[in-house]
Amino acid sequence: MNTDTLSPTIPGPVALTVALVVLALAVGAALAVGRHLGRRSARTRRGERSGDAVSGYLQAQAQTIASRLDEFTARIGELEARRREESAVLQTKVDDLTESSRAVADEARAVAGAMRDNQSRGLWGEMQLERVLRMSGLEEHISYDTQVTVSGSAGRSRPDALVHLPSGRCVVIDAKTPLDSFLAGTSAADPDDRARNFADHARAVGQHVRALAARNYDEVVPGAVDVVVVFLPSDALLAEAYRAQPDLLDQALAARVVLASPSTLLAHLRGIALGWREHRLAEEAQTIADLGRELHHRLTTFAGHLGSVGSSLGRAVDAYNKAVGSLERSVVPQARRFEELGAGSTRTLSAVDPIEAQPRSISA
Fold first, then answer.
1. How many CB atoms lie within 10 A of CB 329?
2. Domain segments of the chain: what residues?
3. Which residue from 40, 45, 189, 202 has the highest number of Cβ atoms inside 10 Å of its Cβ?
């Protein structure tokens, strides 16, 4: 890297040398003119006097130029020292940036190498699927399950995810990560090689579609709908497959397979999550209606019992008033007769008043 161009305000070594040479030539030219004029003016007295004046003037100018040249040389030295310092700092920054770029490149190569391993790419696809499921608003173990082994009439199977529907059915999702041809296509410099690798990538996706269609998940998984979702963990994987093979979507739908990327699958899952929320609201509304009917039944029963209590209290009041009337008519006169005959006790017979109030009836 050429450090002479790091700062546009600081001249480089070549510029300094040129400046010094120009100044030296100027001083030399001035002295030469002075000597020439001195020789010519020596022929005549007037010329001698004029030559002395010109020579003195030129010598003064030469001294001024020499002084300015010394100052300029010192300033150039300071600027050169500053340029070296700034160049050293900039070189350190460039070295740090180069080291960081090398580390990033090493990590990128490591990631690319890991993505070429079938197990690593499978784990990456499953992690992306679980991330989309969590972002959709669905609840794990309630509205979806992952890595569930199911048994059916056609055998055993282990799909990557089962998304349950409010109706009791479920949607089977299987994650696939075809990366070999896709990575080769993205890194290819030649357009023909790129197109050929992307065509291989589209064929690999088509093979996954046919393989999943042959599994007949709707017969293996109880309650599964007759469509299986193939999840590709990157939108670019699906976009390049469609671009290389435009009829891939029609072939997948004909095989009852839906190709989904993170963005499209998230939209479908959010719709399912909304259906679950509406289903829960309907269930809660039905529960509230059932509780209301039960409460109404209990209130009417209680009102009936309370009315029976009021009727019994009314009959008790009537019986009490009849007893008071009988007491006043038949018992009290005889007791007072005993008092008049001197056979009464020390206690005084008090009057017993009847009850005038009646229990209030319950209005409908």
1. 9
2. 3-112, 115-278
3. 202
Residue 196: C-alpha distances to residues 180, 183, 200, 278 (Å)? 13, 12, 6, 48
Indicate the class that CATH gives domain 115-278. alpha beta
Q: Count the Cβ atoms, other than its own, within 10 Å of residue 288.
A: 10
Residue 212's beta-bridge partner residues?
A: none
| Cα gap 339→326, rounded to integer Å | 20
Determine whether 50 is exposed, middle or buried from the number of CB atoms within 10 Å of its CB (0-12, 13-18, 19+): middle
133 with 140: CB under 8 angstroms? yes
Backbone angles phi, psi at 355, to 5 degrees: -90, 120
pTM, two decimal places: 0.57
Higher pLDDT, 330 or 343: 330
358 pLDDT more than 80:
no
Q: What is the pLDDT of residue 30?
A: 59
Contact assessment for residue 181 and residue 201, using Cβ atoms and an 8 Å cutoff: yes
